[in-house]
Amino acid sequence: MQEMPCTKIPNFREHLKIGMKEPLLAFNENGIYCAQAGVYLDPWKPVEKAFITHGHADHSRWGHKKYITHNTNVPIIKHRLGEIEVSGVHYNETITVNGVKFSFHPAGHIIGSSQIRVEYKGEVWVFTGDYKTEDDGISVPYEPVKCNAFITECTFGLPAFKWLPQQQVMNDINTWWQQNREAGKTSVLFGYSLGKAQRLLKYLDTSIGKIYTHGAIENMTEVLRPLVDFPPTTRITRDVKKDEIKGNIVLAPPSAHGSTWIKKMVPYETGSASGWMAFRGARRRRAIDKGFVLSDHCDWQGLLASIKATGCERIICTHGYTEIFSRFLNEMGYDARTAETQYEGELAEMDSKIEETD
Amino acid sequence: MEKAGEKNMKQFAELIRALDSTNKTTVKVAALTEYFRIAEEKDKVWAIAILSHRRPPRPVNTTLLRTWASELADIPLWLFEESYHIVGDLAETIALVIPPSEENSEKNLYQFVEEMIVLKKLPEADKKGYLHENWLKLNYYERFVFSKLITGSFRIGVSQKLMTRALAKATEIDEDVLAYKLMGDWDPQKISFNKLILEENEEDYLSKPYPFYLAYALEDTIEDLGNPQEWSAEHKWDGIRSQVIVRNNELFVWSRGEELVTDKYPEFEDFIGTIPDGTVMDGELLPFSEGEIGIFNDLQTRIGRKNISKALLKKTPVILKAYDLLEWKGEDIRQKPFRERRELLEQLYSDVKKEGFPLHLSETISFNKWEEAIAERERAREVKSEGLMLKRWDSPYLVGRKKGDWWKWKVEPLTIDAVLTYAMRGHGRRSNLFTDYTFALWDGKELVTFAKAYSGLTDAEFRQVDSWIKKNTLERFGPVRSVKPELVFEIAFEGIAESKRHKSGVATRFPRIFRWRQDKKIEEANTLEDLKALVPQ
Q1: More confident residue, B112 or B480
Q2: Closest by Cβ to A5, choosing from B20, B21, B78
């Protein structure tokens, strides 16, 4: 067995010790912490005050005393977490806590998603949460924010990931639906119930047929209908007859794959829309008939372009191919390192078992 | 299949995409059938060759491929390598990292393959130029297929059987006849589709083996087979399934992978002149020295070698343990009942047998009641077999894997509890998941590696273990990770023998994961001593 060649990754903490300064944002057992303000960003354990980037379960967890997030995300996390104390802010609105200026900026990941900018004594940090650079027509498009230190996800931080334009992928999806319909089959399309499902829904071609939804997706879509113009959908309930679904499309969360629920759609073809579908193995492993490469995260070029646009010197990679990505960034001359977090990126979207199934 | 008018590489790439985007056999066969109906003749021949593992020789080694691909993608080589570890397939990695094509290629599949054959002999600079030019001209899927052809490993979930079925549909020629035509040593560069598939080829007859008849594992209890008088039983030998052909004073040895391996086993040259012309025997190639059958592991030294030295021939001689006769006096006798074929084989054997002659007979086990067969199966490990083969006395010799007349009835596997120590990413379907594991047993206070296993867990379990591995990695060595010794698995294997080639001193046969022992702590895993105690004395 050959030992992997190892480049020495500069240790962030050592740098800071030399500067004798606490970092503005630090990673502790609860989450990303700003000690000066006593504020956590997307914490994974219950805390007093949580600034939340977006509504996915690995970023907005249950049990915090106070949630602060973008206005649009408020109904989303209320729907997911129930009775919580939450206040909403606008993009670019500054909230000052003990001298630290916080503001939310569009991340383009899903509707209501933000990056969080943190400024103290002229030093600027940005935490991306999850983000993508392509305008999906639903969420406010990503905007690069100038900073000194950039805490970024890198779910798809490998040169093997290159996304095609959304329009092209949606054309493929609609063509697939049309072909299935002509073959007398129902199309069952899997996408995470918050974000991906609505992105798919928005661009499905209703001239082909009707759109049916799994309960989890219908519930979330109902929450978002006041904010976005979506085509009509029909919830699959016990009363919906098998015959009426035939040839139409059904949007379902990934967890519905292989469940008894799906039997109602027979005969059907399955499709899945995710960045992971770029890999032939990922699709075959999940026994999906058709994979569409469509992600709400940045691809390789998207990550590199975003980093460049921030003008940052320091980078912390939180989730995804962190070690590989930070090694590459170091070779490019950045001061990059990784941090352990409990964020899951699109893995959560693919394999999550915690999705509600009502 | 779309764009029926397009007769080039795009068509083949579309076929591969269609095969690759479904797990339904009927859809795969339909896509192949359509291809065989519409593709150009020369492309069809190459498609058949590629799908039956008759690939052109690899024109460029993979080290150069990786280097040149990373150059074209403008990424450092280490990053290409990391991507490859994660993607799990070299051709796929190349196809993914190379920038999207702006040009177009109208070349045919056969043109690409023939260029690759020429390419092998060209200087490195020309090879690089050729690859860079074509990678940039092909779209993602064409690039993937093109690179697959270069790397030479074309596993896309289509068996030769499926391909043959589609070919039968497209040509309306009987599937078994086609299977026979596709066997043997034909050169896709020289043969036409007409000659290979449509015409009768008398001259190819000389070396041609018959398609092997394969057995399924017995599903029900042995008593469900009915009357024991109707069944023949023999031991299931653990070697290389082979057909040995003597025709026109020439010898041909075929392995089950349809590989002509005559040169690797010069022992059988003795058959010429002794075994009459027009004889084809089906049997198991086994290591045999000092009057005893060896273990499969001994054969490894013979399988890999191209040049068989005298020393090796002396150290690990092989025999054919024959169990069926498919051709006798130049006549195909596969339709005769097994009982008759067997009688002819036994007659042949008793006529030619002599001291040191490398032909043995797989003895028929006589039994009147199933209990006697059960008792004989219990002796399998003692006689170095894997269990029993049950064959219906009145059955013909069929083509391929068929249920009903032949059953394999293996002994229950041996099992031992071992600790997971290393993990590697899987390939193909399991790329991006850690599914290839190394297991260790206790030797005092140390854990000693004894086996690797890749199968036996459900997809859900693999995902669970994969996620554990990612959180419990101690060290990374390229694609391999050492993990915290914590998980215990019950490992099953078919056979066990002492081995100097293994660190543990023991070689196991077909190790696989039997189940995840979530109830056990590592202290409760077995020791190397426990394992050695299983070696038959």
Answers
A1: B112
A2: B78
Distance CA B70, CA B85 (A): 14
The CA distance from B409 to B386, in Å, is 8
pLDDT confidence of B306, banded at 50, 70, 90? low
Residues B228, B315: one domain?
A: yes
Q: How far is Cα B48 from Cα B195, in angstroms, rounded to an integer?
A: 13
By C-alpha distance, the chain A residue nearest B426 is: A281
Q: Is the confidence at residue A287, as pLDDT, over 80?
A: no
Per the prediction, chain A carries an average pLDDT of: 89
Question: For residue A354, what pLDDT is reported?
Answer: 35
Residue A310's contacts (CB-CB under 8 Å, 6 or more residues apart) are: A126, A144, A145, A146, A147, A150
**Strand residues in chain A grouped as ranges (E):** 26-27, 32-34, 39-41, 49-51, 66-70, 86-89, 94-97, 100-106, 114-120, 123-127, 149-154, 186-190, 211-213, 234-235, 249-252, 268-273, 290-292, 314-320, 335-338
Candidates A294, A325, A320, A291; CA nearest to A307 is A325
Please provide residue B272's backbone torsions phi and psi, each rounded to the nearest 5 degrees.
Answer: -65, 130
pLDDT higher than threshold 90 for residue B348? yes
Same domain, B447 and B399: no
State the best of A158, A178, A179, A340 to mutate against chain B, taking most chain B CBs within 10 Å.
Answer: A158
Return the bridge partners of B416, or none.
B491
Residue A108, Ramachandran bin (φ over 0: left; ψ between -120 and 50: alpha; else beta): left
Report how many domains make up chain B. Answer: 2
Q: Beta partners for B272?
A: B275
Q: Kindly report the backbone phi and psi dihedral angles of residue B409, in degrees, each rounded to the nearest multiple of 5, phi listed first.
A: -135, 85
Contact A3 B477 (CB under 8 A): yes
**pTM for the model:** 0.74
- The residue segments making up the domain with residue A179 are 166-292
Size of interface A-B (CB pairs under 8 A): 78
Report CB contact under 8 Å: B83, A158. yes
In a 3-state reduction of DSSP, which class is residue B529?
helix
Closest B-chain CA to A353 = B460
Rounded to a whole number of angstroms, the distance from the CA of B374 to the nearest CA of chain A is: 39
Single out the residue of B484, B423, B432, B473 nearest to residue B82, CA to CA: B432
| A154-186 per-position pLDDT tens digit | 999 999 999 999 999 999 999 999 999 999 999
Whether pLDDT at B215 is above 90: yes
Does residue B87 form part of some domain? no
Nearest CA in chain A to B96: A160
Residue B449 structural domain: 414-532
Whether the predicted interface score ipTM is above 0.90: no
Distance in Å, alpha carbon of A65 to nearest chain B alpha carbon: 29
* pLDDT at B427 exceeding the cut of 70: no
Question: Is the predicted pLDDT of residue B30 greater than 90, yes or no?
Answer: yes
Surface-to-core class of residue A227, CB atoms within 10 Å of its CB (0-12 exposed, 13-18 middle, 19+ buried): middle
What CATH number corresponds to the domain at position B256? 3.30.470.30
How confident is the model at residue B300, as a pLDDT? Answer: 81
Residue A107, domain member (yes or no): yes
Q: Do B76 and A328 touch (CB under 8 A)?
A: yes
Model confidence band, residue B429 (pLDDT cutoffs 50, 70, 90): low
Checking if the pLDDT of A15 tops 60, the result is no
Mean pLDDT of chain B: 89
d(CA B500, CA A335): 50
Contacts of A331 in chain B (CB under 8 A): 76
Residues B238 and B353 both lie in one domain? yes
Angle between helices B124-137 and B109-119 (to 10 degrees): 160
How many angstroms separate the CA atoms of B257 and B54, rounded? Answer: 11
pLDDT confidence bin for B96, thresholds 50/70/90: very high
Q: Is B428 on the interface with A (CB under 8 A)?
A: yes
Provide, for chain A, the percentages of residues in helix, strand and coil under a 3-state DSSP scheme, each rounded to the nearest 5.
30, 25, 50
Minimal-distance CA residue of chain B relative to A283: B429
